[in-house]
Amino acid sequence: MGNKCFRKFCRGIVRGIVKIFYRVEYIGEKYPEEGPYVICPNHLSILDIVFVILHSKKRWVYFMAKSELYKHKLSAWFLDKMGAFPVRRGQCDVRSIKRAVTLIQEGKLVCIFPQGTRQKGNKILPPRRGVAMLSALTGAEVIPVFIERKAKIHKKTKVYVGKPVNTGLDRNSSKEEIAKKSVELMDIVYNLPEVYKDK
């Protein structure tokens, strides 16, 4: 079974499971039907990436996964099949960045959690520069996504999807400009419920 068929098969199964056990409501925009974009969601639970992927019925979402998940051959094989690629958290992982850039240049959707790890409690974690840096390196626009709450069985979870954001960054942008834009993007993510409050 090829990767495309495998992903389609898995997505169908997972979509059915989520529909039964999780009440996910998507509010806002659909993902663009074509073109490269960086998807930028907040991160509360392991199911966040599932909700991000399931919002797209046609296109596949590639994503970074922490390198610790690749220690076992089976999980590494599965993640690879699902379009994930490893990232070493807390480091400047050049290999991971190159992989993300390549995917974006190929016109793919790539999801990166800007905060780098899951939020625990109510304290909002500051963003890292990964999303803005990829936008600077590729010119790709950023799709902000806000996940309202940590997923719980039979509890409604609202997922807000915003319009693509042109960061205005390029390869000549300074570290300071990229850092500033990272904060601005995070603010956009957390403001999505206000933007779509009447939807």
What's the short version?
The chain contains 6 helices and 7 strands. The protein has helices at residues 3-21, 48-54, 73-81, 94-105, 130-138, 175-195; strands spanning 23-28, 37-41, 61-66, 84-87, 109-111, 141-147, 156-161. A 7-stranded mixed sheet has the order 1-7-6-2-5-3-4, with helices on both faces.
Question: Would you mind describing this structure in some detail?
Answer:
It is a single chain. By secondary structure, the protein is α/β, with parallel strands linked by helices. It has a single domain, classed as Glycerol-3-phosphate (1)-acyltransferase, CATH 3.40.1130.10. Helices cover 39% and strands 19% of the residues. The protein is built from six helices and seven strands. The chain has a seven-stranded mixed sheet, with helices on both faces. α5 crosses α6. The longest helix is centred in the C-terminal third of the chain and has 21 residues, at 175-195. It is globular. 32% of the residues are buried.
Write the layout of secondary structure elements.
Blueprint: H1 3-21, E1 23-28, E2 37-41, H2 48-54, E3 61-66, H3 73-81, E4 84-87, H4 94-105, E5 109-111, H5 130-138, E6 141-147, E7 156-161, H6 175-195
Parallel strand pairs: 1-7, 2-5, 2-6, 3-4, 3-5
Antiparallel strand pairs: 6-7
Helix pairs in contact: 4-5, 5-6
Order of helices and strands: HEEHEHEHEHEEH
Side by side, the strands of the main sheet go 1-7-6-2-5-3-4
Radius of gyration: 16 Å
Terminal residue distance:
40 Å
**Which word captures the global form?**
globular
Proper CATH architecture: 3-Layer(aba) Sandwich
CATH H level, superfamily name:
Glycerol-3-phosphate (1)-acyltransferase
